[in-house]
Automatic annotation (TrEMBL):
GO molecular function: phosphorelay sensor kinase activity
Protein name: histidine kinase
EC numbers on record: 2.7.13.3
Domain Histidine kinase: 193-394
Catalytic activity as recorded in UniProt: ATP + protein L-histidine = ADP + protein N-phospho-L-histidine
UniProt KW Transit peptide keyword: no
Domain of life according to the entry: Bacteria
Matches recorded under Pfam families: HATPase_c (PF02518), HisKA (PF00512)
PANTHER family linked to this entry: SENSOR HISTIDINE KINASE TRCS, SENSOR HISTIDINE KINASE YKOH
A Gene Ontology term for the protein's cellular component: plasma membrane
Phosphoprotein among keywords: yes
Transmembrane regions listed in the UniProt entry: 20-42, 154-177
Upper taxonomic lineage: Bacteria, Pseudomonadati, Campylobacterota, Epsilonproteobacteria, Campylobacterales
Amino acid sequence: MLASKSLGIDFPRSEKQTLVRFLALYILLTVIIILVFSFIYFELQKDLMLQEKKSTLQKYSKELIEDLKQLHVYFDKTQIYPRSDKFDSAIFDNEKKLIFSTNDTKLRLDKILYLESGVIHLVNIPESYYLGARYIIVKVKDDEVWLEQTKKEIITFGAITFLFMLVIGYILLRLFLKPMRDAITLLDEFIKDTTHELNTPVSTIVANIEMIDKSSLDEKLLKKINRIDIGAKTVSNIYQDLTYLTLGNEIASNNEDIDIEQLVLERVEYFTSLALAKKIKICTNIRERTFLHVDKFKISKLLDNLLSNAIKYNKVGGEIIVTVESRVFSVEDSGIGIAEEDISEIQGRYKRFNKSSGGFGIGLSIVSAIAKEYNLKIDITSKERVGTKVSVSW
């Protein structure tokens, strides 16, 4: 199957992309939650530190106010504003104009206790206006011991929480995916059982039709036989596609040198009746004989899907040209074509860009899988309402 493994479950590429997006969103939300709680914890730790420093700053503030009071009472022009080696200070008047400061840093009066630029500030308002002082600020440098400790705690608990949330996400994802896994398993079993039951009757019908001498039949009966032949071959082709999808990994490859010219002629003859039903002409253009070392069943399946799509998406009365050159063969049709923006996605399973045509949309996904197994290069060129050309090279 064209599937990718995720959490021990096989999923097609589109489902895997959905799971990756879900995990990315879950991880993003987890990181956001951790960051929000880390910020809240950091602010709480900062407030706790400020409250612990507050008593010391209040003590310094009282000392400064007492010194101001003494200077106010025993004022002498030779005296200067009080200062201390233990803290920096600043004095503002009633109009919030700076009277005195022991450094040039910008100060704020809108908060009582705050941390800014690594310095803790306490704003105090004296009971009396000593020497015109209305606001007194005392400042001490933060030793940042609490900051380093808080960082360590945030990193440690953040990492533990992230891993815990990943485990929870993994468990939830497996629980949510169980119905999908069961459905895929049930579908695979159903397809395997169905294809197994189809094998004998389809093979019998095709074999018996091929043994009929059509030259001895009247025209009316010949048309009926041809319709049966077309229907049987269509069902046979679908059966082989489903067989490859369900058992592709289990089918042992019997690689040998395949004559591509001979294979093309065989498969074109097989699909002639299907093409004639839509009045489509299949032309072969063998420019050079070439060989490819592959499993005959798989390379036949690849070519069959290219021819089947060329018929299915062609117009009535259209044309198909199958070209064989050195180390390359191509199938070109005159059909509806593919939009340029859809070409990159057309090889995905269940991709059909024309809902009016039948099919399951698995043809080119099988082509892609076989090409990948044998390192074949698939090149698709197409123009809407003109046609499509698919080249396989090695």
